[in-house]
């Protein structure tokens, strides 16, 4: 598997996105035996470099096997990618990557998958001062636009307020919305936005990023924490607080997942120390259901 550190080390988002997407498809195929009864006259196994527009996404969602259609009409949809670029996304894991670094790789890979399938892909970067928006397109120049926007964005300030976000839900446009965020918010602004997008656009896939050192609380001895958005600091003894922290975190994660699914979102928790495969698998499943 291609680790986030390896992909980030390429220092080339276009290359990293393609490597991640094609490595995932090829690895998933290689790890499974062909099922009995597969119609090989209509399908052939995916190979690196194949045109992903011919990939049978429905078969992939049902079986996690990746085959190309030899003679079917392609389906496509609109994919709207959302990136939380508030300052909390600057949190750095033990592997040296920030949540924003991971989000860039992830969204780049998802954009590559969707574009190769023929989908119209758009991107909105959520900044506190305003939105950076690239409308959905299916032309050959869209991927470079998306990569440039992702590579040049910086995480600053708070998650934008209701007024700034209003333009995202001003008109109805059927799409699969994929939101990558750490769910750090002052109130319920992220949940409110996704609820409105669910009503106006349809399907919402919520990819919740957490660093490994947050999930495992791998800190030792006396530690001073600083809130990246407010600047507030807190000094604690990590060893003494670990058990209480992990208990509260587990309760919060369970409630977060329950609330998201109750409101109709597809929710998936991602550890930023882990490969992108789980998120890409969830995207393929959700994309298939919407096509």
Give your account of this protein's structure:
- The chain has 2 domains: 66 residues, no CATH class; 213 residues, von Willebrand factor, type A domain (Rossmann fold, 3-Layer(aba) Sandwich), CATH 3.40.50.
- The chain is 42% helix and 20% strand.
- The protein has a 6-stranded mixed β-sheet with strand order 5-4-3-6-7-10, with helices on both faces.
- β3, α4 and β4 form a beta-alpha-beta unit.
- About 4% of the residues have low confidence.
Mean pLDDT score, rounded?
88
Strand content: 15-25%
Largest sheet: 6 strands, mixed
Question: Could you tell me how far the N terminus lies from the C terminus, measured between alpha carbons in angstroms?
Answer: 28 Å
Radius of gyration: 20 Å
Low-confidence stretches: 29-41
Give the CATH H-level superfamily of the largest domain.
von Willebrand factor, type A domain
- CATH architecture classification name of the largest domain: 3-Layer(aba) Sandwich
Give the structural class.
alpha/beta
Output the helix-strand order: HHEHEEHEEHHEHEHEEHEH
* Whole-number total of structural domains: 2
The number of strands is 10
CATH topology of the largest domain: Rossmann fold
CATH class of the largest domain: Alpha Beta
Report the principal-axis shape.
globular
Short description:
It holds the Pfam family DUF58. This protein has helices at residues 4-9, 13-30, 57-63, 99-116, 142-152, 162-165, 189-201, 212-216, 238-262, 277-290; strands spanning 43-45, 67-69, 78-84, 120-127, 130-137, 176-181, 204-210, 222-226, 233-237, 266-271.
């Amino acid at each position: 598997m291609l680790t986030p550190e390896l992909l980030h080390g390429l220092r080339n988002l276009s290359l990293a996105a393609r490597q991640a997407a094609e490595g995932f498809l090829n690895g998933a195929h290689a790890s499974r035996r062909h099922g009995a009864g597969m119609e090989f006259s209509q399908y052939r196994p995916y190979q690196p470099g194949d045109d992903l527009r011919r990939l049978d996404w429905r078969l992939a969602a049902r079986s996690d096997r990746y085959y190309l259609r030899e003679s079917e009409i392609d389906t496509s949809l609109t994919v709207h990618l959302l990136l939380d670029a508030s300052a909390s996304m600057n949190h750095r894991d033990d592997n040296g990557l920030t949540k924003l670094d991971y989000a860039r790789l992830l969204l780049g890979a998802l954009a590559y998958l969707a574009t190769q399938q023929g989908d119209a892909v758009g991107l909105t970067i959520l900044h506190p001062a305003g939105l950076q928006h690239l409308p959905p397109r299916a032309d050959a120049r869209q991927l470079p636009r998306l990569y440039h926007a992702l590579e040049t964005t910086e995480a600053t300030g708070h998650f934008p307020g209701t007024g700034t976000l209003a333009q995202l839900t001003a008109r109805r446009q059927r799409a699969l919305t994929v939101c990558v965020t750490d769910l750090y918010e002052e109130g319920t602004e992220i949940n409110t936005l996704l609820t409105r997008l669910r009503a106006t656009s349809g399907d919402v896939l919520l990819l919740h990023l957490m660093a490994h050192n947050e999930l495992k609380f791998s800190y030792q001895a006396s530690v001073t924490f600083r809130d990246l958005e407010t600047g507030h600091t807190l000094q604690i003894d990590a060893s003494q607080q670990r058990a209480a922290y992990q208990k509260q975190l587990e309760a919060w994660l369970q409630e977060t997942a329950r609330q998201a699914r109750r409101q109709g979102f597809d929710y998936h928790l991602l550890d930023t120390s882990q490969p992108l495969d789980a998120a890409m698998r969830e995207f393929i499943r959700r994309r298939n259901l919407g096509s």
